[in-house]
UniProtKB/TrEMBL annotation:
L-serine binds at residues 226-228, 279, 378. Its main location: cytoplasm. Belongs to the class-II aminoacyl-tRNA synthetase family. Type-1 seryl-tRNA synthetase subfamily. The gene is serS. Homodimer. The tRNA molecule binds across the dimer. The keyword Secreted does not apply. This is Serine--tRNA ligase. It comes from Pilimelia columellifera subsp. columellifera.
Length: 418
RNA sequence: GGAGACUUCGCCUAGUCUGGUCUAUGGCGCCGCACUGCUAAUGCGGUUGAGGUUAACCGCCUCUCCCGGGUUCGAAUCCCGGAGUCUCCGCCA
């Protein structure tokens, strides 16, 4: 949710942000109107309520006719208060709905436009010179690392079994990611992957992403699509110390229905219903958020360097930002058989947007409580295996394990077990 | 799955049976001031959070006793639903 004070003071800023995203400006005016209506309703209710309380104080001492008259008046008042209270309730709901409809304010400097209007910040590393490279699935099957067919038999499409050296490689990658995270001062976390509706809604995933989410009807719980959800909700409703940013690294399984992606990335493990992910998550003061964003990006790039992948960094255009994000950087690794870069990491600065909904605050130097800023960023997913397999493949179908990964994988070359 | 106890303004706690004087008691902690030439001790004052009014402040008002409803002129207190914590029973890969 955006800051209502900012909206009142500078509505044009929000309108400009909506234009940059290519989204409707009318939601801004709807929100302004809803805010105005709510304040009027609140004032009407409070006036009546104050009068009711005044009269209520006289009640215990009143006797006889005086008491009867008082009772008659307060009875009327009570009815009026009830009506006014209901009006406030309705106005609150309307305000909340209008509030949720407005995405975060785009940060200054974000390129305007849609998906293809990103700006490439840099390209790093050398693309491998491969003669007739095999794609990750062919390599995965050759190595006994990925079993899509049996996954489909047991669970359906987009549910791979990771097997043999594939399982070892994934575990090694994740272990490296967690060690890197700890080295950078992040607190490792293994969160629950089933969460209550509040956590899901608080992180904004029941809005545009609702159809992407698995839900357990019998228990009214949701399967998270990223550990961002439990990590963000971790401090919900709390006032936390933020003299230093609070940083976490969550390792969790993620579940996505991939409802809108039929026919997209159907081959291999690029896009699956269930995968593990190491996700970084920071809480910090709003004024530190931009620096924290760079920090998360730097950790991601450090990790990409450790696994020796060629990649580029893009500054995502406004129209391609999630509704919570004010700015987003993606690291995309080179995928030889696709001849293009594919997203491996994504780090978003959500400023106070997410924390306002989740009510995460800190105490400022002057003793006042303020809404925190939140940021998130990817540190490892199975999609990284796609890039690692393809970029480090050898002519014989084996795969070189990057040096930094070797201790965690337990070997320097991937070959079929046995 | 069943039964019971509990949840109060940072922490602990009084109040709930018997609705109004609860503008929620006391202790601890924290902040400020005074005093003692340091520290400590002592005294005084302050200390939940949110919203509205205001250019802002002061002040005033409203809401907030786990959450949501209800009863009532009036709810921390009574009723219903939910969440969480603990205890016991049952079941269990």
């Amino acid at each position: 949710m955006i800051d209502l004070r900012l909206l009142r003071d500078e509505p044009d800023l929000i309108r400009a942000s909506q234009r940059a995203r290519g989204e409707s400006e009318s939601v801004v005016d709807d929100l302004l109107a809803a805010d105005e209506r709510r304040r009027l309703a609140v004032q009407a209710f409070e006036t009546l309520r104050a009068e009711q309380k005044q009269l209520g104080k006289l009640m215990p001492k009143a006797v006889g006719d005086e008491k009867a008259a008082l009772l008659a008046r307060t009875r009327d008042l009570a009815a009026g208060v009830k009506v006014a209270e209901a009006a406030v309730h309705d106005a609150d709901q309307a305000l909340r709905a209008a509030h949720l409809a407005v995405p975060n304010v785009v940060a200054p400097g974000v390129p305007a436009g849609g998906e293809d209007d990103y700006v490439v910040l840099r390209e790093v590393g050398d693309k491998p010179d491969l003669d007739g490279p095999r794609d990750h699935l062919e390599l995965g099957e050759l190595l006994g690392a990925i079993d899509m067919e049996r996954g489909a038999k047991v669970s359906g499409s987009r549910f791979p079994f990771m097997t043999g050296v594939g399982a070892l490689l994934q575990l090694g990658l994740f272990q490296l990611a967690m060690q890197e995270a700890v080295a950078h001062g992040l607190i490792p976390v293994i969160p629950p992957v089933l969460v209550k509706p509040e956590a899901m809604e608080g992180t904004g995933f029941l809005g545009a992403h609702a159809s992407e989410v698995y839900r357990l009807e019998a228990d009214d719980l949701y399967l998270v699509g990223t550990s961002e959800v439990p990590l963000a909700a971790y401090h919900s409703g709390e006032i936390i110390p933020l003299d230093e940013p609070l940083r976490y690294a969550g390792w969790s399984t993620c579940f996505r229905r991939e409802a809108g992606s039929y026919g997209k990335d159907t081959r291999g493990i690029i896009r699956v219903h269930q995968f593990d992910k190491v996700e970084m998550f920071s809480f910090c003061r709003p004024e530190d958020a931009a620096a924290e964003h760079q920090r998360l990006l730097a950790i991601e790039e450090g990790m990409l360097a450790k696994v020796e992948l060629p990649y580029r960094v893009i500054d995502t255009a406004a129209g391609d930002l999630g509704s919570s994000a004010a700015r987003k950087y993606d690291c995309e690794a080179w995928v030889p058989t696709q001849g293009r870069y594919r997203e491996l990491t994504s780090t978003s600065n959500c400023t106070t947007f997410q924390a306002r909904r989740l009510n995460v605050r800190y105490r400022d130097g002057d003793g006042r409580t303020r809404t925190a800023a939140t940021l998130n960023g990817t540190l490892a997913t199975p999609r990284w295996l796609v890039a690692i397999l393809e970029n480090h493949q050898q002519p014989d179908g084996s795969v070189r394990v990057p040096k930094a990964l070797q201790p965690f994988v337990g070997r320097d070359v991937l070959e079929p077990l046995r």
